[in-house]
Amino acid sequence: xxxxxxxxxxxxGSGKKYKQCHLKEDQAKDNERRAAQEAVRYIRRDLLxxxxxxxxxxxxxxxxxxxxxxxxxxxxxxEMSQSEALRFADWFMFDYTLxxxxxxxxxxxxxxxxxxxxxxxxxxxxxxxAPPSGAxxxxxxxxxxxxxxxxxxxxxxxxxxxxGRGVVEVGEVILARLVPVVGQMEFSTTAAxxxxxxxxxxxxKMVAAETAYKVEHPDATHDEFMRAHNHLLIHHALAQAKVxxxxxxxxxxxxxxxxxxxxxxxxxxxxxx
Length: 273
Description:
By secondary structure, the chain is of the alpha+beta class. Helices cover 44% and strands 13% of the residues. The chain has a five-stranded antiparallel beta sheet. A two-stranded antiparallel ribbon has the order 5-6. Strand 1 (134-142) and strand 2 form a beta hairpin.
């Protein structure tokens, strides 16, 4: 809703000027929203910084190889593009189980929460329980609002993305994590997607993997399976890129636009040789 000018009649129909009626209340709401948005930006940055702690270096190296199906390893990690680095870091922080059985997001919560502001704590409390990254079919869109359906469970979601649908067409699949951001759902970081021709048998692969997983973990939930095996979605995307004759990762693209070392990975790469 477009707000009236200070001296215009208030939108509530009271007959008073806006400045004498709802102006202060609306300003307070706007300030609260800005504070909450800034808290989310801070949590995103601070989680990346936290993940660069040297105690996580060995886990980082192991996770990198798993996520990229050996197309990236510790020795060539600096060749990741920025979007690749951010997607991997997001998965490493939220989904990957470290050698000690914990997830990095929970360690951050335990160690840092009390140091955060109330807005930052609220954002972290929600993100701590964010679902695992998954595959979402784009079923429709209106401007910057995307209508999605979980490709495996059929659960529907409405997501805001400042870039709108980008190049994704209705019926294609977005690989991403959904997180709450100030009253709406957004992608936690840059999303990847599967064009229609590359979707292929991804659902059958994931259903088969979940069936096998539940033989060993009969009480496991779907989310628990996804945290343990959603890297298979990435493996599928990498394999399909090869089938279509595209470089599966940036380091194999001779024509990649960015040749410089990515700052995110350079800062994370601290494992001593």
